[in-house]
Amino acid sequence: MRDVAIIGVKTTKFGENWDVSLRDIITEAGVGALEDARVTGEEIDAIIVGNMSGGQFIEQEHIGALIADYAGLAKELHVPATRVEAACASGGLALRQGIHAVASGLEDIVVAAGVEKMTDISSTSASTALAAAADREWEGIMGATFPGLYAMIAKLHMHKYGTTSEQLAQVAVKNHANGAHNPIAQYRNKISVEDVLRSIMVADPLHIFDCSPITDGAAAVILAPADIAHKYTDTPIYVKATSQASDTLALHDRKDITTLAASVEAGKRAFKMAKLTPKDIDLVEVHDCFTIAEICAIEDLGFVKKGEGGKFTEEGNTAIGGKIPVNTSGGLKACGHPVGATGIKQAVEIVEQLRGDAGKRQVDGAEIGMTHNVGGSGATAVVHILSRDR
Amino acid sequence: MRDVAIIGVKTTKFGENWDVSLRDIITEAGVGALEDARVTGEEIDAIIVGNMSGGQFIEQEHIGALIADYAGLAKELHVPATRVEAACASGGLALRQGIHAVASGLEDIVVAAGVEKMTDISSTSASTALAAAADREWEGIMGATFPGLYAMIAKLHMHKYGTTSEQLAQVAVKNHANGAHNPIAQYRNKISVEDVLRSIMVADPLHIFDCSPITDGAAAVILAPADIAHKYTDTPIYVKATSQASDTLALHDRKDITTLAASVEAGKRAFKMAKLTPKDIDLVEVHDCFTIAEICAIEDLGFVKKGEGGKFTEEGNTAIGGKIPVNTSGGLKACGHPVGATGIKQAVEIVEQLRGDAGKRQVDGAEIGMTHNVGGSGATAVVHILSRDR
């Protein structure tokens, strides 16, 4: 296996972008990443794109070919383009498939991208579309949507470990504070614990400020063999680990719904592959589709003991400057959550941090970062570890 | 790169299978292929599944995790499971991704599967869902569905090359004759040229018997490194080539719509990789979503000169016993076309033929076979070459 480096990155503005379509934003992200890497179209061997549901959101499947087409890589060059999907972990999977393609020696320059255009249908329909990430025959058909599923996780976490609504709110407060410094974030306003607790209840105990929004957005990274990365950039960022794990689709089939076993397993596999431990990680982007999800994630990945994530957050340990900065981008909560793009955006944030380009969000001396991307309520988890040093 | 072998195969009955759901048929195919390969669950390193649109057809995305779950591979083993999509070429892409995973040395035993459950919604909705494989903003929005797009290809083919409705009909007649001997085929009735010409017109010049049907079905193959294939089976079938190419999504952006440039390019790349020519191929499964598509395919892959596919078919050269038997399974036309499963089913047919297990469909002395899987109207093409000999 060859070492792999990220040599270019780009994320579009996340938000309700009604004046552009999916093909516009994915082209902006792809071309931006290529420019960042100073790579030409002729050099591209393959495109892998993560997208959860173009079919449901905009009646457009076959998005790999669409991207190759709109990037001008289809007509003469016939560049192979593949869509991968694992619900909200689609972006993370695209990164993983791209890394595999380069690591194996089958391809040299690969574009790994993610995109979702979610605001072109009503929010009710968006919730229905997203519910397709859960078990349709056992959960969706009963009316379960994701706020409801994560609310059950939150309720049990509170019951077992004494986690409080204030602690959940702290996740949102911290992520909005980070997002305020991120130019591409959907929400750049700071909020208080009181703001969260006073916001309308979506699914008890989750208020609307405990939930990530519906978002349009795209992101792309350019992958290359580590041996030639310096041809393109002075600051390649190296892939130290990629891992993926599955779990049951329905919550009711799990022994303990406060633990996402796929996250635990993907984390373990990644640390083993990188020969690292949680102590070695300088910052992490985790999948905070709901505030409770961030608390579970930092526990499941081993940054804090199970049950102590709420207290750990409340004490400020996950803020920039804390023991382990979590979601410096603003996370899914404040930066936004265009589901297929999120896993790639997480990698872009880590690359910008490790390059020292994160501006007011910069984690001092960041050398090793991690991304954690979850599909549905945890039936898929994808973890990557990235490093300044090869 | 390591050599890769197919060590187990299974296709479910194709048809309108209203008594089973997607999870039932994909589990039947996966478990059947594992039994055929005598592989246990613990040995599986990864699952790759092709599926075009679980979201639109059955409101279920995240189908990789669903399969791992229902196969009992998620809860304890956490086997990574990934869905890939390129419209009707999703199955071919799953096979290709699986081959890459094994060839690279990253995985040993990989399940490559495909599935589509299409009959749980009305046929009008199925046509709308399928139209998402075309360019939504330039074709779908104008009302174009696939019969219309392929009808335009057929019209121009007739105009430029003198291809006749009778020659198109011959494709359907031959594929129904083959399907009659295939126990898993959706249609096992023989038809005549007159039957085709008398059937209702869907989009001039395509009658309903020129069109592949709406189908439920699943298929799976088990991949392993060639070096250990004989541990599992006495008749491993070896992968000699895998290739993929893109083209513009919309027909109007192409120089000549009677040529699918992605098929031409994928064919060339596959022959180059295998160091073979069309003359070396003993049988081929091509993507006959419409009768005209089979004629274009045998031309684009180089089995006959451009424009001569209709005459070549009329003369019986593509029948079993002819110069190059095409679609011995019955093809998409008679065997059925569960879009995400088709690319895998094509490989299963070639494996059964090369093993000598194809019964009354058997091509005598078949040693090398090819599959050709197309997404949409040709924006994606995926080609594989399989062989009895390593």
UniProtKB/TrEMBL annotation, chains A, B:
GO terms for biological process: isoprenoid biosynthetic process. Residues 4-226 form the Thiolase N-terminal domain. Residues 244-388 form the Thiolase C-terminal domain. CDD domains: SCP-x_thiolase (cd00829). Keywords: Isoprene biosynthesis, Transferase. Transmembrane segments: none annotated. Pfam families: Thiolase_C_1 (PF22691), Thiolase_N (PF00108). SUPFAM superfamilies: Thiolase-like. GO terms for molecular function: acyltransferase activity, transferring groups other than amino-acyl groups. This is Acetyl-CoA acetyltransferase. It comes from Methanomethylovorans hollandica (strain DSM 15978 / NBRC 107637 / DMS1).
